[in-house]
Amino acid sequence: MEQLPTPQEQADSAITTIQESYALTKSTKQKVFIIQLTNSNRGFSPEAIALIKQQLAQMEFDLPTHLSILPAGKIPSTNFLFDGLEELWSNSNQMRLLFEKIRQRPVR
């Protein structure tokens, strides 16, 4: 049986993914940073999400940024974009509103 990562391991992996993806986004001169964290569709435990939020509070994002996360026990929909994902962090009200609208529309 596969051993699931601890909350700290989940958080460390997520933060590494965020940092590496943000660096790539900046180096390729993109205008926004959007990331969905799913933990290979297994989701993240509530403890891991809390740890990720603590670490995000120490990070700086100068691009408009929206981070979504899949909580453990939720399954992403194949009919709606971002369905099952929760907002983890955002520094843009425009992006928040956009993603809220997207969550409500079926995929065509």
List keywords for this structure.
108 residues, alpha+beta, single chain, globular
Structure described in brief:
The chain is of the alpha+beta class. The protein contains 3 helices and 3 strands.
Characterization of the model:
The chain has helices at 7-27, 46-56, 93-103, and strands at residues 33-37, 65-69, 86-90. With 108 residues, it is α+β, with helices and mostly antiparallel strands. It has one domain (7-103). A three-stranded mixed β-sheet has the order 1-2-3, sandwiched between helices. The mean pLDDT is 88.
Mean pLDDT: 88
Kindly report how far apart the N and C termini lie.
38 Å
**Sheet with most strands: strand arrangement:** 1-2-3
Question: How many separate structural domains?
Answer: 1
Counted beta strands: 3
> What is the 3D shape?
globular
Structure classification: alpha+beta
Helix-strand sequence: HEHEEH
Cα radius of gyration in angstroms: 14 Å
Strand fraction equals: 5-15%
Biggest sheet overview: 3 strands, mixed
Number of helices: 3
Helix share bin:
25-40%
Question: Low-confidence spans: pLDDT under 50, at least 5 residues?
Answer: none
Spell out the blueprint of helices and strands.
Layout: H1 7-27, E1 33-37, H2 46-56, E2 65-69, E3 86-90, H3 93-103
Parallel strand pairs: 1-2
Antiparallel strand pairs: 2-3
Helix pairs in contact: 1-2
